Structure formats: structure tokens, C-alpha cells
Amino acid sequence: MGAGHGHGHGTMTAGAANSRRLALALGLMLTVAVIQVGGALVSGSLALLADAGHTATDSFGVALALAAVWIATRPATTKRTFGFQRAEILAAAVNALALFALCGFIVIEAVDRLRSPAEVSGPGVVLVAGVGLVANIVALLVLRSGAEESLNVRGAYVEVMSDALASVGVIVGGVVLWLTGWSRIDTLISLAIAAIIVPRAWSLLKEAVHILLEATPRGMDLGEVREHLLGHPAVVDVHDLHAWTITSGVPVMSAHVVVDEERLRDSGRMLDELHTCLTGHFDVEHSTLQLEPPGHADHEGARHA
Question: Has this prediction a pTM greater than 0.90?
């Protein structure tokens, strides 16, 4: 006798007010990125271009936070049983690859400029970076109250703070360039910003690949999960135990649980107890468990751990 049971999908929610804050902050940051690219072209500053890449990185983090709110409202269908949640991970992978390409360009251009310094406008760099810093400060003020209420918004707040600090670095470099005419400072700052972006892009790509390969969620020990289930007095064995991640913050699990014959007569109560256990101890809100009597595994054919 087997039984299956599933709970609703885990979601990452935020209130309407937080959605508006995130959208406004994202709009400000994308505007800054466009201004920085334009300023880089006009002033000849590689640091501004690198800062635009940094802003794009942080904008993507805010966009993911906003996407989480949108995804949470999208219903699942028979064709997409988990809705559009995996789209967030695909976007993260594409974003990471684009950042690697940008950093590669910055490094190649920086090496060339260190050999043959280019003419860069110090006042132009200070002006554009200053505009970016002001926009970042506004975005921080917009997100501040929401950061106290929502982990999602708090993550976006940190992203904007990071970009504000990068803008400060570009302004300092622009002032040095303006006062001394030492153009290599712009190149050195661009390399520093690229060095900040690369580890974050690598972490983003690694996490995206980890999820796309349906690996065990980070921080989860399946051995510990198995032992915890076996701790239930009615559970005889656990096999075909799998856990993976649909999207950030949404782990799912499935398992075959061998249960004492007597308790199988009240399978509904048994399932509720096991699901409560998984949700409470491992934060897995969506799990599918097949309850079966001792000896049933011998008839299942292929078995996994």
C-alpha cells in the first residue's frame, strides 16, 4: 500500500508596498547604469564603465527580489507545475555570463591603457559618479523601511549600498584625476571594480548551475534528514530520498517511507506528522512522501539511495 501527499509550494512573498519600493529602486539603478555608460563614452573613463557593470550587477539583484514577488503571484499550470520559478535561475546564469564578458573587456582595455594611458575627463567622471551616488542614496532611503520588514528587500538594500560605495570610489578617483592629471588612477579603479564583480558573478553562476543540476540544497544533509525520519517510532526505513531546489528559497523533497503496517491504516495522520517534521526541522514546505509497508521495496525495480 502506498500513499502520496504534497503540501503547497514555498513562496517568497513581499507586500505591495515593498513591491513598489523595489520597482522604484530598480528604476533608479537602471537609470544610473545608462547614465554611467553614457558618461564613460563621453569622458573616456573605464572606471565609469566598470561602475556601470557593478550597477548592472546590483540591479539584477534587485530585479530578482522583484521577480520573486511577481513569481509568487503566478499560478502553476499543467504544463508548468511550479509556475515560472525556474526562470529566475536561468536569468541569473545569463546575467553571470554577461558579467564575466564585461569584466574580460575591462581587463583587456585596462591592460592596454596601462601601456598607453588614454585621456580621461576628471570633472566628467566626478559629475557622472556623483549623479549615480545621489540616485543610490535615494534608492537606499526608498528601501530602508522595507528592509526592516522583508528579507527580500533587505537583500536589495545591501545591493544598493554596495553600488553606492563603488560610486564613492569612482568619485575619489575622479577627484585625483582632476587635481593631478594622473589618468592611470581611472584604470586602476576600473580593475578594482572588476575584481569585486568577478567573485560575485562566479558565486551567482555556481549557485545557478547547482540549482539547474538539481543538486541537494546547500546546507541540507540528506543523511540527517533520513535519520530524522527514522526517528519516528512508526518508520522502519527510508529510501529513494531526493531533495532539490526549484528556485532560490524553494527546496522540495521526495522519499519512499516504509511504515509499520499498523500505522498505515491511518496514513493521513502519518503523513501529516512526517510533513510537519520536515517543515519544522528542515524548512521544506513542499514534500512528496510515498508510504509503503515493509517488503514493498522488493517490487519497485530500480532503487536509489
Answer: no
